[in-house]
Design a protein that fits this description.
Elements: E1 4-7, H1 10-17, E2 26-30, E3 41-44, E4 47-52, E5 59-62, E6 65-68, E7 73-77, E8 82-83, E9 97-101, H2 103-106, H3 110-113, E10 129-130, H4 133-151, H5 158-183, H6 185-203, H7 207-211, H8 216-222, H9 227-238, H10 242-258, H11 265-272, H12 277-288, H13 292-298
Parallel strand pairs: 1-3
Antiparallel strand pairs: 2-9, 3-8, 4-7, 4-9, 5-6, 7-10
Helix pairs in contact: 4-5, 10-11, 10-12, 11-12
Length: 299
């Protein structure tokens, strides 16, 4: 059985690593300067951003798979997540820079109100951000600003400056992910094609009657992506959210089926996965601009 230890605070993590805690709510760690570690699964109560400088032996487990850190990779983890993998019995020397911060650090700041916008904290490890040399230096510069602030003399401005530096880093990460989505255009188009095929297969199977209309989580899982990464990818490629895309595809299928005079409106609704026909009619009118009956009459 997997052993999982709980590390609720930045100090808990620093104690686990055997390093000092200059600030109780935020820390910057030069991983090359800590002692060799043994692998262990960790349930964390804080945010972590890992910058790996080199391809190295320390892997992260996500689900039942292991992923190597590639050179200059940025990985994100959020409170409530479990990171790391089981002890192999062999110690390893980590490399790179790590930023840790607790949600309490952000309380009362504008950043606390839109942390959910940084969806990459819920990306899977295999959806990590791969950095150019210049991007890597930008990340390190941001971390060094935070480190200088928390290790210097504190005053009434310190917390705001630290939080602003974290927000700057996160906004850079949004920019870098946008670049990564663009440079992976072919892979993204392949995912979009697979998404379309998945929806086609879904509506020609008995899944709607068993499970209802397809969800973003279901589609992401079938395509082996995290829901947030999948949603962001579809938004970048189509301009629509994944949910909007699914709904549009559902209504396109409804239009085809409404052309069959032997199918009642209720038949179409149930076949699409709607539990109540009136919910289908309401959604159809909102998307198409007329009711199913009106559409059938016009066409």
């Amino acid at each position: 059985m997997e052993k999982i230890i709980k590390l609720n605070t930045v100090k808990d993590y620093n104690d686990f690593l055997g390093i000092d805690t200059p600030h109780p709510l935020v820390g910057v760690i030069d991983a090359s300067k800590i002692k060799p570690l043994h692998h262990i699964r960790k349930s964390i109560g804080f945010y972590v951003i890992y910058l790996k400088d080199i391809k190295c032996a320390d892997q992260i487990k996500y689900g039942r798979k292991f992923y190597d850190f590639q050179e200059e990779t940025l990985v994100f983890a959020a409170p409530g997540q479990v990171i790391g993998n089981d002890d192999t019995g062999e110690p390893f020397q980590p490399k790179g820079w790590w930023l840790t911060f607790q949600p309490e650090l952000l309380h009362g700041t504008p950043l606390s109100r839109h942390m959910q916008d940084y969806t990459f904290f819920s990306y899977a490890v295999n959806e990590a951000l791969h950095l150019s040399k210049q991007e890597r230096q930008t990340v390190i510069d941001c971390m060094m600003k935070i480190d200088d602030e928390i290790k210097g003399a504190t005053d009434k401005h310190s917390n705001l400056i630290v939080v602003s530096a974290i927000e700057l880093l996160l906004n850079y990460c949004i920019r870098f992910y946008d670049r990564q989505f663009i440079t992976r255009k072919k892979e993204n188009k392949d995912t979009l094609s697979s998404f379309e095929a998945l929806l086609n297969d879904y509506f020609t199977s008995d899944k709607p009657s068993k499970f209802g209309t397809p969800t973003v989580a279901y589609c992401a899982d079938q395509l082996h992506l995290s829901a947030n990464y999948f949603g962001d990818l579809i938004k970048k490629e189509t301009g629509s959210s994944a949910q909007e895309y699914i709904l549009a595809k559902t209504m396109d299928t409804a239009k085809e089926w409404l052309a069959d005079p032997d199918k009642s409106i209720s038949d179409v609704a149930y076949a699409l996965g709607y539990q109540y026909p009136q919910y289908f009619s309401k959604a159809f009118k909102r998307i198409v601009g007329c009711s199913p009956n009106e559409y059938r009459t016009l066409n």
